[in-house]
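ugh ok fine here u go
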Amino acid sequence: MKKVSFEISDEQIEEIKELKEDLERDGFSSDDCYRAIFEMGIKAYWMERKNPDDKDIRKQLIMLASKYSAMRFKYFQLVRDNQTLDIKLKGYEAENNYLRGLSGIRTDEE
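structure:
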């Protein structure tokens, strides 16, 4: 992964802040918001270069591509959260079994 740094105008930063707030309401982290916004911009640029005359179709494709990008980031976050919760659950189950063994409580597994 690469880190990118660049300057943008005050007007653009306000637009980015609005988009970031929308994405954060959908559950994205700050870093994921900026990554999604940057990726949407790249897709919009390439779509405009390839189809300069197809305004309506291009707008629809940009909208769909941005929604898809946001859904991919949300999926990634959910998978990561699921893995974290699974690890925690396994730890709690192991701790529970250990404490049951110490206290002499029989479990159904025995």
